[in-house]
Amino acid sequence: MTQHELGDFNSALESKQCALDIRCKLFEDEHSSTAGSYHSLGITQHKLGDFNSALDSELRALDIRHKLFGEDHTSTADSYYSLGIIHYDLGDFGLAVQFHQRALDIRSRLFGAEHPSTGDSYFELGNTVRLG
Length: 132
Prior knowledge:
The chain is mainly alpha-helical. The protein has helices spanning 2-5, 9-27, 32-47, 51-69, 74-89, 93-111, 116-131.
């Protein structure tokens, strides 16, 4: 996280990949820590402009989170949110809208309308709809 915050995304990517490898060995693939590593890796891949790898990582995180937590969980919403951002950057506004809407629906149910995460989802959805 420190490397990422300092903007050293290549080092962060390497560290996050090592963390993912360790977590896969320790916990196997269907564990919340493994899903967190995929999600974190996807964020860094996205920062580096590797949108296809970020998409793969975030989809894997979503798959694990959905199996472990179901649809109505904050981590599942976070995955949908990240997937919306990636699809937006890939220019696929239709899918971006779908993912942002799912994140918004979950966050609204979990947190209500007056929560920062719900506001973030409204913001991203509005930006995507505006361009799509």
